[in-house]
Amino acid sequence: MAAVNLRSNALNVLITGANRGIGLSLAKQFHNNGYNVIGTSRKTDAATIADLSAVAVAVVPLDVADEASISALPDRVRAYVPHLDVVVNNAGMYLQDKFGELNATDLLTQFRVNSVAPLLVAQALLPSLRASPNAAKKIVHITSRMGSIADNTSGGSYGYRASKCALNMLNASLAQDVKDVTCIALHPGYIQTRMTSGSGDMDADECARRLFKVIHGATHAQTGQFLHRDGQVLPW
Ligand SMILES: NC(=O)c1ccc[n+]([C@@H]2O[C@H](COP(=O)([O-])OP(=O)(O)OC[C@H]3O[C@@H](n4cnc5c(N)ncnc54)[C@H](OP(=O)(O)O)[C@@H]3O)[C@@H](O)[C@H]2O)c1
């Protein structure tokens, strides 16, 4: 599904879960800064992707919980761009949970979406990144400080915390194994989106402006790091 025109000689970024929240704001930021944006969305009806279509060269379907959907992604991307320069694994979910009322389904669903899926997306899209003539290829995982063991002083959120902690570890391993791509885990802060029911200390557009600066400016010296939206290194 084509939306805005492809810019020649521009960098290409793919952002998962780009139909709303931080993902949509990131799509706007990358577009405004000259990138070609491929946005993915679980639903691709006109109403769901209207805002994304205004800034993306293509909106491709992706349900990150579905392995077949991830396998289909490289071909779907190649229909629009010959390679990618940046992959932002942004899609994520939060389910309220409480010790005493935990269940395996909710814990595993969050693990699947927040940890397993970003790794499989990175694996599927690595050839597309490697096809880029640009030396500075990047994989960005939108993680959370709630996944920091050192920072956990309030407990709770078992499934979400553990799944983001796992994502941080997966990013660290990826950085060791994939030496030609800069792999970073990036914490956006407490942001006003549907995930937080609109609470938070910043709106998604301002958050995305800061995340963009960190992503665009990231160097290979930072590979494997867990970074705050303003660029500081966070404790594991
Ligand atoms: N907001 C915060 O305070 C905060 C803090 C720390 C980290 N984060 C992280 O930031 C990222 C974006 O969160 P947000 O606040 O923008 O949340 P959001 O408004 O709830 O948006 C979540 C996005 O992920 C997509 N998504 C969820 N499950 C998916 C699936 N199975 N397949 C494909 N897409 C799926 C959603 O698509 P649908 O519209 O189809 O549901 C939506 O596009 C997440 O990784 C989140 O964990 C957020």
Identify low-pLDDT runs.
Answer: none
CATH superfamily: NAD(P)-binding Rossmann-like Domain
Shape: globular
Bound molecules: NADP nicotinamide-adenine-dinucleotide phosphate
Biggest beta sheet attributes: 7 strands, parallel
Helix fraction bin: 25-40%
What is the N-to-C succession of helices and strands?
EHEHEHEHEHEEEHE
Q: Going across the major beta sheet, what is the strand order?
A: 3-2-1-4-5-6-9
- Portion in beta strands: 15-25%
Give Rg in angstroms: 17 Å
Number of domains: 1
Give the second-level CATH assignment, the architecture. 3-Layer(aba) Sandwich
Structural class: alpha/beta
- Count up the helices: 6
Any idea of the CATH topology?
Answer: Rossmann fold
Distance between the termini: 40 Å
Describe this structure in words.
The protein is an alpha/beta fold. It has a single domain, classed as NAD(P)-binding Rossmann-like Domain (Rossmann fold, 3-Layer(aba) Sandwich), CATH 3.40.50. The chain is 39% helix and 16% strand. It contains six helices and nine strands. The strands form two sheets. It has a seven-stranded parallel beta sheet, sandwiched between helices. Strands 7-8 form a two-stranded parallel ribbon. The chain binds NADP nicotinamide-adenine-dinucleotide phosphate. The site of NADP nicotinamide-adenine-dinucleotide phosphate (NAP) has 27 residues, from helix 1.
